[in-house]
Specification:
Helices cover about 75% and strands about 0% of the residues. With about 80 residues, the chain is mostly helical. The radius of gyration is 21 Å and the shape is rod-shaped.
Length: about 80
């Protein structure tokens, strides 16, 4: 009786496509979260005016930029 060697499930084209779509979807949700953080920091800066409000706003915008750049990078790699 021949021995059946189990194959790697990640070699299947359908599984790889599903994995790529899942990764991109997670990154899109993360970018939406980052844009929500930008909005919340902006509202906080208008409500509570401090010396570090501008710095926090800058970091939140930088964070959103990195999240969007990560989507573009993943789209290119995947």
């Amino acid at each position: 009786m021949p021995t059946i060697i189990p194959t790697n499930p990640f070699e299947s084209e359908a599984v790889l496509s599903l994995l790529k779509v899942a990764i991109l979807l997670i990154l899109v949700f993360y970018a939406i979260f980052a844009l929500t953080v930008v909005r919340q920091v902006d509202l906080m800066s208008k409500t509570l005016i401090t010396r570090v409000s501008g710095v926090l706003k800058g970091f939140s915008i930088l964070h959103a930029g990195f999240a969007i750049a990560l989507i573009i990078l993943a789209w290119g790699i995947l």
